[in-house]
Amino acid sequence: MAVRPAKRPRSVPAPCDQRGEDDYLPGNIVEIEIHNFMTYDHLVCKPGPRLNLVIGPNGSGKSSLVCAIALGLAGEPQLLGRASSIGAFVKRGEECGYIKISLRGFTTEEKIMIMRKINTSNKSEWTLNGIIVPKRDVIEIIQKFNIQVNNLTQFLPQDRVCEFAKLTPIQLLEETEKAVGDPELPVQHHTLICKRKELKDLELSVAKNNETLNQLKTLNAQQEKDVERVRQRKKILTEVVENMKKKLPWLKYDLKKVSYKKVQKQEAEAKRMLEEAAKTMNELMKPIEKHKEEKVAQESAVKKVNDQITKNSHRRMEFIDIESRMGIQVRGKYQEVEDLRRQDRSRQQRILKAKEELAAAEKDLVDLPRYEPPKEELEKLGSQILELEMNANQIKLQRTEKGNLLHQKNLSLKKCLDRLKEMNNEKSKLLQTLKNSGVDKIFEAYNWLQVNRHELKREVYGPVLSEVKVSNGVHATYLENHVPFYIWKSFVTQDSFDRDLLVNNLKKYDVPILNYVGGRGLNKSQFHITHEMNVLGISSRLDQVFTAPDAVKDVLISQAALDHSYIGTRETDKRADEVSRLGINDLWTPESHYRWSVSRYGGHVSAIMEPVHSARLFVRNVDVSDVESLRSRKNELEATIIGIEESLKIVQVEQRQLEDEAAKLHRQREEIINAVNLAKKKRRELESIVDQRKRKLESLSKEEDLESSVKKLVDLAFQLDGKRCELSNEIKASLVEAIALRQSFTEKHMTCIELDAKIREMEVAIKQHEKIAIQAASHLEICKEETERCKHELYVAKQHAESVVIITDDLVREFEKMPGTVEELEAAIQDGISEANSILFLNQNILEEYESRQNKIVSLETKLKADEEQVKECVSDINTLRDQWLPTLRNLVVKINATFSCNFREMAIAGEICLDEHGMDYDRYGILIKVKFRLTGQLQALSSHHQSGGERSVSTILYLVSLQDITNCPFRVVDEINQGMDPINERKMFQQLVRAASQENTPQCFLLTPKLLPDLQYSDACSILNIMNGPWIEKSAEGKKEVFYSIIHVSFFQPSFILHADVCLWQLGVAVNAGER
């Protein structure tokens, strides 16, 4: 199996002949520039090519320089142990900053400038030689020079020194392989570990499969006798019973075939009988058909005569009807003559009566007085009504205008009240404040929560700012400055389901979600104000000055440590230096915010004082003057509305009075008009009566003479009688024709009856033969159905027999030896089954189990062969890889041990480096550091149980020094490794560092320390970077520049070094003078 290739590219070693005239190796840091980074405003630093001693008091910014190197070379914030996000490294109060690191290329002229721009939004932008590039391009450059900022043997920041001391031998070996030696070593080591694990798995699998195989073989051996009996039983059932069962369906098929042939003969006989019956029927049907044709001809003649009789009868009835109508007309004419004679006697009386009625009506019309309408009174009433309606319209218009004005005032009042309500809504104000502070979608997030509360399992609070109530404005300022802004805009959940729901749905609104789980891990400090605190003016604590739901309050306390921050007065401000003695590390006063911290090394206390910034979130955004203005406007609108409503009521009363007066005048005018119309109507009615009576009189005068009318009526009667005589003759002729037709109809109808009787007699005879034919046809159908059924059964039997077995010559000969009938064959089969059943065994599935185990045995044997081959192959790969890796590693450890032992001997103590081998367990291989700091005793492995902190520091730095001459990394960083050493060990350690830095093949080294011992020995390889900062540096820099020069000249004797140290000192001292500290 091939060895897995390396995961990272092979780095280019930095041999000593690659040093140029500038004494730098490829990958060395030649310049560091940082801006708005941690405590620095701006810094430009040019380290030396070998040992760089970075010196400065605690808190001056040495470790900030280490952080800049790590982050500038693509390191993650987590490896520094300070913060989890890149935005936390931007200087407080600034929005963005940058780190620029220049590396020496493979030639003296080549410089590689890497810049990382960072901002408080945790975003980074990378540039390579001024060109914006992705981070992977920067990582490729860094890997080319084998720079590993995550390797503790190369890069040991202050916050990870203790982590390096805690490295196990196994971890130390991994870090050493990455830092020095062949880059293939860690890859080969990892491959060996994986191969060994794979080999163990294979060996375990082989052993397990061998055990399983033996168990299966044992079980099969135990069951062989039972299996043999099962096979014997199976043979009886297969060879004897099964062959008989094969013949049985063919015997049944033969029986079905005989039955089929028998029903075929029956069907043929039934068909012959049906044909004979049909022939007899045809012979009997011929005379019947002839008689039926004659009958149809006679019926047609009878129908024709009957139609003629019907037509004659219809014509005769028409003549009779016409004659009857004419007789009625004649009698009517004679009746009219009698009526005319009676009317002539009463006409004179009617004319006289009509004249009398006309005279009476004319007299009534003349006697009726003429009614003249009162025009003046009507005109007066009309003008009064018009005037009242005009006044009412004007008042109605005024009422409409006042109604519109009242509506407008009500709308204005509603807007004013809504605005006041909105100003008085505290939650809306706080949400608006958050929106003004940059949380643009806080209203959308809050509204989403209100709409979807039914989906939540427990109560959700937020944003936090809206849940907190602070009664004191000064305390609100303290609280806002103390708590990070992200908490104020956060929502607090109490259930993991609610948290996930809000995270998924509120992500687009850019609001954080904090999950509170029942006070888990929360250890609140008890609130107690001592007498000493009261004397200094300390009155309260930040966790006591506000109210909020328990979950929100616990989140604020746990996230912002409110239970450790106290509140003082101006008196406390004056005596702030006494506060730290009471164990208080955080204090708020009206003017300042104090924080005290204790050094982990010297134990001295340092303080930070910051001004108190004005509150932005808890400030009341509503202007009081605006509120008062709105309230006065509300009162003014309410008074105006009351006045308008009063005037509107008055106008309504006036309008109602005018409308009542107008209605009264309208009624008077209607009464006058009705009287005029009544008089006119009475005159028109009398005139109509007179006219009607005149027309009646004229009508009576115009009637004809009686004699002429009687003559006309008698003439008409004579004419009608003549026509009646003609119709009587027509009726007589029709009666004669009807009698002749009726006689012919009777003769033809009797002939039809005779033919019908003959046909019925012949049909009775045919029905007897038809019944015989039907019986023959029914019998034929039954035979056909029986034939089809037998045919289908024969087909099914054949299909079944063929599905059991196909007949062959050998099978026929074998069948001939067996019984020939179904009953005998079934009895033989039952005998065979009984014989097989007499062979008893307990497990019915023993044969299947035996064969299944046999298949498993074959499969396992095949797999065992494959696994054994794979084991051999894996062992071969491990041996090949081990022969490459282990000798190289041993040589590397020997080299490290030689240097390490030499360095320890020079410090009058003893130490050695050895490889802790564990045979084939490559994951347990490690590097043991064994040291002895006393003359008595033996070498012991480095640990916190046997050595002190200073002794571990000496051992760690000497181990790192031992790596320098064989390392292939361009630089190494060690932060405050000499802290905790006694002066003797520190001095010896320093001499070792200087000696190692003076060698030709040594990499660039950064040693950060807050102090150096006096009278140390330095060489040309040393460069000192002195970090000084504080509020007085800028003012005193010029005055003390000469003093700095003199100190440097006294301490160091190499002119080139003095010049370099002076430049670095001046650059760093001035660059940080504007820092926060």
UniProtKB/TrEMBL annotation:
Q: Where in the cell is it found?
A: Chromosome; Nucleus
Asked whether the UniProt record includes ATP-binding among its keywords, one would answer yes
Q: Where is this region: Disordered?
A: 1-20
Output the GO biological process annotations, alphabetical, semicolon-separated. Answer: chromosome organization; double-strand break repair via homologous recombination
GO terms for molecular function, please?
ATP binding; single-stranded DNA binding
Matching entries from Gene3D superfamilies are given as:
P-loop containing nucleotide triphosphate hydrolases (3.40.50.300)
Any one GO CC term of this protein is:
Smc5-Smc6 complex
**Primary localisation category:** nucleus
Q: Which keywords appear in this protein's UniProt record, sorted alphabetically?
A: ATP-binding, Chromosome, Coiled coil, Nucleotide-binding, Nucleus
Coiled-coil region: 199-308, 378-437, 627-703, 843-884
The record's listing under Pfam families reads: SMC_N (PF02463)
- SUPFAM superfamilies (UniProt xref): P-loop containing nucleoside triphosphate hydrolases
The UniProt regions of compositional bias labelled Basic residues, in chain numbering, are 1-10
- Give the family per the record: Belongs to the SMC family. SMC5 subfamily.
Name of the protein described by the UniProt record: Structural maintenance of chromosomes protein 5
Query: Which gene produces this protein?
Result: SMC2-2
